[in-house]
Amino acid sequence: MSYVRCQRCGRPTCPDCQRQAAVGVQCVDCVAEASRGTREARTALGGRLRGGPPVVTITIIGLCVASYVAQLVVPGWTRQWIFSPLAGFVEPWRFLTAAFLHSTGSFLHIIVNMLALWMIGPYLEQALGRARFVALYLLSAVGGSVAVVLLAQPLGAWNVGVVGASGAIFGLFGAVLVVMRRLGGDVRGILAVIALNVVIGFVVAGISWPAHLGGLVTGLALGAAYAYAPAARRQLVGWLAPVVVGAALAVATLASYAAVGLL
Fold first, then answer.
1. Using CA atoms, how far apart are residues 38 and 52, in angstroms rounded to an integer?
2. Which family does it belong to (predicted)?
3. CA nearest 163: which of 182, 148, 150?
4. Mean pLDDT, to the nearest integer, of 23-45?
5. 48 secondary structure, DSSP code
6. Residue 39 banded pLDDT, cuts 50, 70, 90
7. How far is CA 199 from CA 95, 107, 215, in A?
8. Hey, which of 11-20, 47-56, 196-205 has the most confident mean pLDDT?
9. For residues 135 and 242, what is the distance between their CA atoms, to the nearest angstrom?
């Protein structure tokens, strides 16, 4: 017979079923019930509060670095995954894979992009949660490639290759702007960063400003959906917004291809 009673329900509990609580001992049933009733800590925008390192941001950086090493040592790696409007028409996955490539002619390209990702990524990953952050990053990367297609006709750049995570990074810039605005933060710093990078995109040769523009617009759209979704509908918007944005990008791309007779 057990002479120890649960401090919560008062029922006897055997030594194997006893759990030390803040005050006295509780049975396993009461511990499980209390655990179910505990609300999970969330950020102001509904992201799950997590301790430890920003896993998604680190993973993306690791993939970019690994791909860059492959570009240097694996023959044909860049050619296999690089994006151009014509290559993307034949192999659509290039809309995304190009975001994990960087210019092998200058280490500065990947260093600047990864530094920007490390500065912004952890903040958004925590504020939005991992799933929404992944959707934001990947769709911003695709949005940059889509803008290259949309502007290929007037720019005459259907067969010009594009590499780099800049479109995705600009998407994060746009999302940070909206999120900080929504939370009442000072947005002057991020506005200055965006303006400076836009100017650089037009002034410095070899930079794809359409990819920057496409990523920025995509990030603004998704960031606004995430930041201004009603609390009761955040989970729904978290799934629906990427689907809507992705569909819009697909329709715009197909329309652009159709306009030049590829469809």
1. 21
2. Belongs to the peptidase S54 family.
3. 148
4. 64
5. B
6. low
7. 24, 21, 15
8. 47-56
9. 7
Interval 172-181: pLDDT, tens: 999 999 999 9
Options 67, 145, 212, 256, the catalytic residue: 212
Q: What does the alpha-carbon distance between residue 177 and residue 76 come to, in Å, rounded to a whole number? A: 38
- What CATH architecture is 75-259? Up-down Bundle (1.20)
Which amino acid is it at 34?
Answer: A
- Note whether 242 and 131 are within 8 A (CB): no
Asked if residue 89 has pLDDT above 50, the reply is yes
> pLDDT digits over 59-73, tens only?
999 999 999 999 999
Tokens of 125: 């990953």
The secondary structure of 92-136, three-state, reads: CCHHHHHHHCCCCCCHHHHHHHHHHHHHHHHHHHHHHCHHHHHHH
Quote the DSSP letter at residue 136: H
- The residue count of the chain comes to 263
Please give the Cα distance from 100 to 67 (Å, whole number): 6
Q: Which of 140, 166, 208, 256 is catalytic?
A: 166
Tokens 């994006």 label which residue?
A: 83
Catalytic-residue membership of 109: no
Q: Is residue 102 annotated as a catalytic residue, yes or no? A: no
Domain ranges of the chain: 1-27, 75-259
pLDDT at 33: 64
